[in-house]
Amino acid sequence: MHARSRRLAAGIASLTALGLVAACGSGGDDGGGGGDGDAVTLTITANAISGGKNAAEADWIRDWVIPQFEAAQAEAGRDVTVEFLEEGVDDEDYKTKIVLDLQAGEGADIIGIDGIWVGEFAEAGYIAPLSEVAGDAVDAWDGWEQMPEAVQSAMSFEGERYGVPQGADGRVLYYNKELFAQAGLPEDWQPTSWDEILETARTLSSLDGVIPLQINAGTAMGEATTMQGVLPLLVGTGTEVWSDGAWNGDTQGLRDVLELYATIYGEGLGDPVLQQEAAGRDNSFAQFAAGEIGILLEGDYFWRSVINPDENVGTAPMPNRDEVVGYALIPAQTPGSGVQGRDFVSMGGGTGRVLNPGSDNPELAWELLAFMNSAEAYTERVAGTVSITPRDDVNAEVLASDPMLTFVSENVLPINSYRPGLAAYPQVSVALQEATAAVVNGTPPADAAAAFEQALIGIVGEENVATGDG
């Protein structure tokens, strides 16, 4: 049997095991489609195009997902064709196209979107909970058991699943073991509070030419300040930027976060110049790789791509990465003070896929979406790479050779929090960045928090802001 035939047979077996190859349906009206000789065409769209943006995803959909699914449906007696509507444009242009399609009741059956758009699309009525679109089969899918609830949250809104995540990531504290050893600190480090982080940074300050602690701040670093700075710290206080249907303004949690920034940069534990440079984040990467930064809060992307020892992958490759770089969970402000009473916290991002509520064949579209998120599909998608997927079973296999990414998969993904997927978020994020910039430049934290609340009111309206701790 040729390799292609083996893959097709495996896909059919996978669909059968998942319960996705059913007896032939009656066609159009039941949402299944393709039964009794009826030909059905399903469509997938994503901001991915062969030879261009997100090419690996595009190639996987075109060369593996589509032939596998079509063959499995043919085996079940269904005449199903899947078309991939490729895009390779700026994210905002892609978003605009998707919105226009959904507003018109058109668009692909399966649509790839950024997780940050889910709440906005849901509130606008562009998308609906998966179970409302495709019925009971959604909740019965065994794939959910392989995705931690925190990972599912990336494509959820107000407790409802609107899509299936297609990727997963998390944030940790990276540290340089050699610098720790020089400062007399333990190489196996796991702080349990902000105070422990500060005490470690103060010890590292005894080393010449070393920035003890880098936590992103300011507007020059953009969303990196929010995701690798403000938000993971904020959830460590038990506060989220949006909760219970309102945006949180000048809370005690935000004041505590800004006070931490004031301490770090006021005591010289961090370099305030980095926060103001257009290339500040890239410079921080290079300085960490050169052994000039002791502790850095970053995502697993930093490990996989930035300091990857492979010079064809890493932008600041560290040949001795595996021996020198340590990683630890981000502690809550104090033990148990994080959201949901957590001792440790993280922020996650990523993209996923939703079903078009206007699909003529929603149940069959769900079969295709479930197949795209099966263990077999993810294993094929990450073949030849070391990447975190949303599925625990796949991660256990494909990450076995990488202890750091295994650490993220097993310990960080389950404690992830996520940005609110609402239209106002990008402006709110900038206001948070401005608050940190003000503090780094000497503004008292209480004043910066109050200014943030006023900016927030200007963005979303006073009626949508929980002022103070109310």
Q: What is the CA-atom radius of gyration, in angstroms?
A: 24 Å
* Structure classification: alpha/beta
Order of strands across the widest beta sheet? 2-1-3-15-6
Based on Cα principal axes, name the global outline.
globular
Low-confidence stretches: 1-30
Structural features, described:
- With 470 residues, the protein is α/β, with parallel strands linked by helices.
- The protein folds into 2 domains: 195 residues, D-Maltodextrin-Binding Protein, domain 2 (3-Layer(aba) Sandwich); 224 residues, 3-Layer(aba) Sandwich (D-Maltodextrin-Binding Protein, domain 2), CATH 3.40.190.10.
- It has 20 helices and 17 strands.
- The strands form 5 sheets. A 5-stranded mixed β-sheet has the order 2-1-3-15-6. A 4-stranded mixed β-sheet has the order 8-11-7-12, sandwiched between helices. A 3-stranded mixed β-sheet has the order 9-10-17.
- Strand 1, helix 2 and strand 2 form a beta-alpha-beta unit.
- The longest helix is centred in the N-terminal third of the chain and has 21 residues.
List the helices and strands and how they pair.
Elements: H1 3-17, E1 39-46, H2 55-75, E2 79-86, H3 91-103, E3 110-114, H4 118-124, H5 130-134, H6 136-140, H7 149-152, E4 156-157, E5 160-161, E6 163-165, E7 171-176, H8 177-182, H9 194-204, E8 211-214, H10 223-235, E9 242-243, E10 246-248, H11 252-266, H12 280-289, E11 293-299, H13 300-306, H14 321-324, E12 325-328, E13 330-331, E14 344-348, E15 351-355, H15 362-372, H16 375-381, H17 392-398, H18 403-412, E16 416-418, H19 425-440, H20 445-460, E17 465-466
Parallel strand pairs: 1-2, 1-3, 8-11, 10-17, 14-16
Antiparallel strand pairs: 3-15, 4-5, 6-15, 7-11, 7-12, 9-10, 13-14
